[in-house]
Design brief:
Its EC number is 6.3.3.3. The chain is of the alpha/beta class and 216 residues long. The protein is built from eight helices and nine strands. 36% of the residues lie in helices and 20% in strands.
Length: 216
């Protein structure tokens, strides 16, 4: 897949490693001399994914919307009374970014409602006509979740590649077999606890986690 302009980073579920994958992609692309900017589409709860991405990768990152409750963005906005993000606002922010590559990190899985009228990360990728990186788990259940996510993207002709978001330090039989059976184009894998690495080590090592040789 091509890394140029907007690229969506989504997941098969929540907690699969989207933020560390986004940071690692940013670091790997910057090691290639590419300009990278990261946009977190919607942040909920006390976490600050944009700040974590910048800490790990050094790439500038920001959130378009933030809500206090640790819920899906649509529900978090409703509870807080804060405005829902519009699809056009998110698309315009991606197109206005000056960097060569703009990584758009979603929230939760691909079809979680992110803003006004219930638009999703898939809707944003379709609006921008951009590819998607799907972050998946390594263990049991990931084959079905990944296949469903890729199928949903294919319905809108969205090109996609898969990254394993947290490859365990002590993988078992299921994890090894899933490496063979995981559907879709394989882009790479992130080692478990990669976010605990010193930022300097993270940035130097991230390129080893992806097959970016064919990307432009």
């Amino acid at each position: 897949m091509t890394f140029e302009g907007p690229v969506l980073v989504t997941g098969t579920d929540t907690g699969v490693g989207k933020t560390v994958t986004t940071a690692a992609l940013a670091a790997a692309l910057m090691r290639q001399g590419r300009g990278v900017e990261v946009i977190k589409i919607a942040q909920t709860g006390d976490d600050d994914d944009a700040a974590e991405i910048t800490r790990l990768s050094g790439a500038p990152a920001r959130a378009l919307a933030a809500y206090p409750d640790p819920l899906a963005p649509f529900a978090a906005a409703r509870r807080s009374g804060l405005p829902l993000l519009k699809l056009r606002e998110a698309a315009d922010a991606a197109l206005a970014a000056k960097a060569e590559v703009v990584l758009l990190e979603g929230a939760g899985g691909l079809l979680v409602q992110l803003g006004e009228n219930g638009w999703t990360a898939r809707d944003l990728a379709a609006e921008l006509q951009c590819p998607a990186v799907v972050v998946a788990r390594a263990g049991l259940g990931t084959l079905n979740h990944t296949a469903l996510t890729l199928e949903a993207l294919a319905r809108d002709d969205i090109e996609a590649a898969v990254v394993v978001g947290a490859w365990p330090l002590d993988p078992g039989l299921a994890e090894y077999e899933n490496l063979t059976d995981l559907p879709g184009q394989r882009l790479g894998w992130i080692p478990e606890n990669a976010a605990a690495l010193a930022p300097e080590v993270f940035r130097l090592t991230a390129s080893e986690w992806f097959d970016l040789e064919s990307t432009t």
